[in-house]
């Protein structure tokens, strides 16, 4: 084996044991009589000590050939050491060079010299060798695990829906067309239509974590053309409060999971995760509008990005970093959102805002066939284009609701990062299609 242990699997208690470690050469130090290799793997660093008189000529010769970021496998003995940061070092018996790195490197890996975002993304493979960048993606993995754990504990079934579809969930022009054999299709904006169709099946509580696509030329720090969407849909709800209860608990429990299990990575980032106060405030749109107008803003029938930020500041002053906005004007919401008959002109739509940005949107869906068709026509959509979807509403569709949440935006805000591209391995926006 080229590796028997990661760096975090070795301790001073293993003094005298033989191990094989592997990774990248982070640093080379030559003090004449003794030489050092600082080896980096995905879990941390290992100090390799090379006393000239205690190692073979082969080891010394190999050391002389090494360059920074070369890939090596080192077999040797664990030595307890008070001078080594980890409390141990490795005395090598063999150093195998797996791949020599060219020099100079395309960017600095130590973090001492800051690189532009484009340079980092063009060289993402090496950017990920930086501690802070690697920490972000280790934490991202924990966010995914935390969500899945919560949803499974609440008896949701994980699904995968098509990413090539005949129609978009929202209608409109923000779709990427693709040539699908002899016809045109679209990359999906969300799994909305499919997850709703499943509410008419025995899979009445479902969630999906998967890619979604929006053909919107938004060159901002919070938008991407391809992103990861977390969606859930649940049947037999009493009203949209059931949806908010689930979304609230999901966010809180996921953040708690990452805070508990991600301590080493959070320390590297010098971040902590704040757990929002519960229950989250539930603010009707008109009340939110009134709060903003009292603060000197002019608000229309929806909240702009700047409105959301302003509301976030108001809510933060009240001690809330997460809250719901409910009862939006129905004309601003998609056809599948249920209108509020008791409050004409408004809907059972909800947004979950987090640190002053929309994190998720959803609500109670219209489950009555005739009302759904009427909503489509009101939105200037042709029901004939949605027959595959509407069919599910003819044969027993229970009341249901759900949300769609921007996963990367959640990670970005929770970790207090400034650009959503920091949490995506290979971002796609209107300017970037490679790597």
Could you explain the architecture of this structure?
The chain has 435 residues and is α+β, with helices and mostly antiparallel strands. The chain contains 12 helices and 16 strands. It has helices at residues 57-65, 117-122, 124-127, 131-153, 192-197, 240-261, 263-269, 285-294, 305-317, 369-378, 387-390, 407-414; strands at residues 18-30, 34-41, 44-51, 71-80, 88-99, 157-158, 164-165, 176-180, 183-187, 205-213, 226-235, 282-284, 322-326, 349-354, 357-364, 400-406. The strands form 3 sheets. The protein has an 8-stranded mixed sheet with strand order 6-10-11-16-15-14-13-12. A 5-stranded antiparallel sheet has the order 3-2-1-4-5. Strands 7-9-8 form a 3-stranded antiparallel sheet, with no helix packed on it. Helix 4 crosses helix 6 and helix 4 runs antiparallel to helix 7. The radius of gyration is 27 Å and the shape is elongated. It starts with 17 loop residues before the first strand and ends in a 21-residue tail after the last helix.
In short:
The chain is of the alpha+beta class and 435 residues long. 28% of the residues lie in helices and 26% in strands.
Molecular shape = elongated
Number of strands: 16
Rg from Cα:
27 Å
Q: Give the overall average pLDDT.
A: 95
Give the SSE order as H and E letters: EEEHEEHHHEEEEHEEHHEHHEEEHHEH
SS field, number of helical segments: 12
Q: What does the main sheet amount to? A: 8 strands, mixed
How far apart are the first and last residues' alpha carbons, in Å? 31 Å
Low-pLDDT segments, ≥5 res = none
As a percent range, the share of strand residues is: 25-35%
Q: How much helical structure, as a percent, in the residues?
A: 25-40%
Q: Taking strands numbered 1, 2, ... along the chain, how are they ordered across the largest sheet?
A: 6-10-11-16-15-14-13-12
Summing up helix and strand content along with how strands pair, one would put the structural category as alpha+beta
């Amino acid at each position: 084996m080229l590796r028997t242990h990661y760096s975090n699997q070795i301790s001073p208690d293993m003094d005298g044991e033989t191990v094989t470690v592997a990774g990248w050469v982070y640093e080379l130090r030559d003090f004449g009589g003794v030489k050092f290799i600082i080896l980096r793997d995905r879990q941390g660093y290992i100090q390799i000590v090379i006393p000239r008189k205690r190692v073979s000529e082969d080891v010394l010769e190999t050391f002389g050939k090494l360059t920074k970021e070369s890939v090596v496998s080192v077999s040797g003995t664990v030595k307890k050491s008070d001078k080594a940061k980890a409390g141990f070092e490795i005395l090598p018996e063999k150093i195998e060079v797996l791949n020599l790195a060219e020099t100079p490197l395309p960017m600095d890996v130590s973090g001492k010299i800051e690189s532009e975002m484009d340079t980092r993304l063009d060289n993402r493979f090496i950017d990920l060798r930086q501690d802070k960048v690697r920490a972000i993606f280790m934490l991202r993995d924990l966010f995914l695990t935390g969500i899945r754990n919560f949803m499974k504990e609440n008896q949701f079934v994980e699904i995968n829906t098509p990413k090539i579809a005949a129609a978009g969930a929202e209608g409109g022009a923000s779709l990427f067309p693709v040539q699908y054999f002899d016809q045109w299709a679209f990359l999906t904006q969300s799994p909305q239509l499919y997850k709703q169709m499943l509410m008419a099946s025995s899979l009445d509580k479902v969630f999906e974590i998967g890619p979604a696509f929006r053909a919107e030329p938004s060159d901002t720090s919070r938008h991407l053309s391809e992103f990861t969407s977390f969606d859930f849909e649940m049947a037999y709800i009493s009203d949209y409060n059931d949806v908010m209860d689930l979304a609230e608990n999901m966010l809180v429990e996921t953040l708690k999971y990452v805070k508990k299990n991600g301590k080493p990575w959070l320390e590297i980032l010098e971040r902590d995760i704040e757990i929002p106060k519960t229950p989250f405030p539930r603010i009707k749109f008109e009340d939110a509008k009134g709060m903003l107008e009292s603060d000197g803003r002019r608000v229309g029938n929806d909240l702009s990005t700047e409105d959301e930020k302003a509301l976030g500041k108001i809510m933060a002053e009240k001690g809330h970093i997460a809250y719901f906005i409910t009862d939006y004007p129905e004309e601003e919401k998609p056809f599948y959102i249920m209108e509020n008959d008791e409050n004409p002109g408004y809907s059972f739509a909800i947004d979950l805002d987090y640190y002053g940005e929309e994190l998720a949107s959803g609500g109670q869906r219209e489950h009555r066939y005739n009302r759904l068709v009427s909503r489509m026509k009101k939105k200037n959509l042709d029901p004939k284009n949605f027959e595959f979807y509407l069919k599910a509403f003819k044969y027993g569709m229970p009341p249901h609701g759900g949300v769609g949440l921007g996963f990367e935006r959640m990670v970005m805000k929770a970790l207090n990062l400034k650009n959503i591209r920091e949490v995506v391995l290979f971002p796609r926006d209107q300017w970037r299609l490679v790597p």
